[in-house]
């Protein structure tokens, strides 16, 4: 008998299994998934536009990761980026994504202003997300860009004197990307 490599189940397999579910069974399954984790709840709230502030749970994660309240707690850049990605997967909301990207940089920037010089990886992440935020803002209608431009400019101006090429990179992105759009 040949040893066959077991194949992992795929979305196709799940889809086929779901086709035999009736409406009450699907609701029960979604209820179980909803109750499984806070992330699933946040995802469904965003996807279905339920609640007053869909960004709040994602902003909470970003703040906890990029500007932790507890002294000596480490910054968790990947977790903060994943919160932005999770929101983007849940709902196609360019303005919300621009808000989360800008908020990410604001929190990280505030962290470095308060605690001082961090490390190269930290600044590389802030510079990367800063550029992404500007690019996302540029996809918004002109009348929705002003507040974001001001917030991003404030970050850039207050970065003067911070090392690792941080200030220069923010200036290059701010003036280069926003100027290129005009």
Structural class: mainly alpha
Total domain units:
2
- Provide the gyration radius in Å: 21 Å
Largest sheet: none
Helix content: 55-70%
Kindly report the average pLDDT value: 93
Low-confidence stretches: none
One letter per element, helices H and strands E, the order comes to: HHHHHHHHH
Tell me the fraction of residues in β-strands, as a range: under 5%
Number of extended strands: 0
How many helix segments? 9
Global morphology: elongated
| Distance linking N and C termini | 68 Å
Oligomer: single chain
Question: Topology of this structure?
Answer:
Elements: H1 11-18, H2 23-36, H3 38-47, H4 56-66, H5 77-90, H6 94-115, H7 120-137, H8 146-158, H9 166-181
Describe the structure.
The protein has 182 residues and is mostly helical. It folds into 2 domains: 15-51, no CATH class; 55-181. 69% of the residues lie in helices and 0% in strands. The chain has 9 helices and no strands. It has helices at 11-18, 23-36, 38-47, 56-66, 77-90, 94-115, 120-137, 146-158, 166-181. The longest helix has 22 residues, at 94-115. The radius of gyration is 21 Å and the shape is elongated. 27% of the residues are buried. The model has no long low-confidence stretch (mean pLDDT 93).
